[in-house]
Amino acid sequence: MATLDASIVNISLPRLSVVFDTEPSVVLWVTVAYLLVSVGLTLALGKVGDLFGRKKVYIIGLTVFTIGLVLCWISQSVVQLILSRIVQGVGAAMTAALSNAIVTDVFPNEERGKALGILGAVVSAGLLSGPIIGGPLLDALDWSSIFYVRVPVGIIGVIMALVLLKEQKAVSTEIRFDWAGTGILFGGLACFLLFLNLGSKQGFTNIPILALCFGAVVLLSLFIVIERRVSQPILDLGLFRSRIFASGVVSMGIMFLCISANTFLAPFYLVHGLGRSYAQSGLLLAVVSSTTIFVGPVSGWLSDKIGTRILCTIGMTLISLALFLLSRLGTESTTLEIIFRFVILGFGLGLFSAPNNSSIMGSVPRENLSTGSAMIATVRQVGMSSGIAIAGATFTWFTGDVPIDTLDAPLLVNAFQNSLLIAAIICSVAIITSWVRGRSKTQTLETTPSIG
Questions:
Q1: pLDDT reported for residue 450
Q2: Are 346 and 291 in contact (CB under 8 A)?
Q3: How many CB atoms lie within 10 A of CB 365?
Q4: What is the pLDDT, as a whole number, of residue 46?
Q5: What pTM did the predictor assign?
């Protein structure tokens, strides 16, 4: 539900602008507010899970997220909706920060890749399924349906977590929370995400936008200085001394940055470039997530047997190839040509994500499991947000800021092609970063029973 949330709400923004009779720039904060809170708090809440118990924090997060869904459902104004999304963002940060840590802790090392592969497949399905699920809901029901239909799922999730999960805590019993680091990181990430989101719409050369960029650089630099000095940082910078951890994080960031170009622009290409219906476009886009769901658990299982380096490198190569092939689609491309490219993309995502997450989680000490898990969630969201903003700016550059509805199909397709080609070139860098991680060891962590 959490990874589905961003994409399913994005497609409802035009409807919300009409329902609440407000400007698109105001409605945009329905997404931005959620994004700022969920990204800014993820690392800090991962540390909270280590200190007070991952099960406890995870259940609170899922409960808060579900309450946020209810508040969004009953909102009577855009301000109420934005505030409700902030509540949702807090809950999403709790669950995203701890999910990988919980899974890593309860599975033996020789099954870690398979378990994370299943989790990764579900995450990918959520990220890619927003338009597929949200479109029909908005067509058949009112705008609030994208919130209230998920409330029962949230309640069931809370009950399952209460019954099935066992409590997990870090070995250390000394509680020292890094308040300064948390506040500065939140401010730095907020400035960075606002810079990307607002800059892509207002122009990156505006003085206020440049001020946000400057603020992000200063605050994030200050965060690094502080984390080097505190005894219990929310992000142990020493983790980056591990080539496996650093390579996995960088590769994942580049991957999400690049595939976001397709996630954001492919619907425009299918609907406005080829004249496909929203239903047809949704089914075509579902090919990516369907392939990922199938391949992810298999690649995770394979990573337990042969390691992660080869699988991650091949997966990233396929993602780069798929983005390049997508950039060659034209106004006369057939359904089979599109499906073929989406299958390659889904196969590459499934082949890369599970082994890469397993290598990251396997490279961190057990007392830092929640930090590793939170890092995965943070990099994923920052990468996607950055990628969408950059893809939007690139697309606008090639179209000359002409409204989508008035664009000629050839001009739109040309902008889509150029944007995806740039994404493919950038993504090829991650092939190198995936390969240089070296040989990952599946026995990095010592297996210990969960507390419960």
A1: 37
A2: yes
A3: 17
A4: 84
A5: 0.81
